[in-house]
Specification:
4 helices, alpha+beta, single chain, two-stranded antiparallel sheet
């Protein structure tokens, strides 16, 4: 979903011989609860899949107050399409994993739905102002006559 810049799990390795017991104790994954053998003392997620899920979940909670499950429910309700243009969206740049982004009201912080990058930017550029949006619609309709 949302990508972090951290290295993959296989590249996150510490030299266990520098620790008194010579290895890192097994522990449950913070995401899926599967017991795994960490490769570093701070490692708390068992796989790249769990790591990506946790990163996306934390980002969504911090930025929008929703979790990844809520995002996925919105995605299903919207048939994997942008709420405005009904396209399936697009990947914005390398490292991004989602085609639809969370749209929210900048005044209230309330999440409104999922939009493609273009529709989300359009609302932002029009400052979510319904008068401006209606004027734009009227302008387009007048130019088609």
């Amino acid at each position: 979903m949302y990508s972090g810049n951290n290295p993959s799990k296989e590249k996150q390795v510490k030299d266990s011989s520098k620790y008194p017991q010579g290895y890192f104790k097994e522990k449950p994954c913070k995401k899926c609860k599967v017991v795994f053998q960490p490769h570093a003392p701070s490692e708390c997620l068992c796989s790249d899949k769990c790591k990506e899920h946790a990163f996306a979940d934390n980002y969504l909670k911090r930025a929008y107050g929703i979790d990844l499950d809520e995002y996925n429910l919105m995605l299903i309700k919207q048939n994997n399409c942008c709420s405005i243009c009904k396209s399936d969206g697009f990947i914005m740049q390398k490292g991004h994993k989602v085609k639809l982004v969370v749209d929210h009201c900048h005044d209230t912080g309330k999440v409104r739905g999922l939009l493609c990058h273009n529709c989300n930017r359009a609302l932002g550029l029009l400052k979510d102002n319904t008068n401006t949006i209606n004027n734009a619609l009227e302008y387009i309709n007048e130019s088609r006559k």
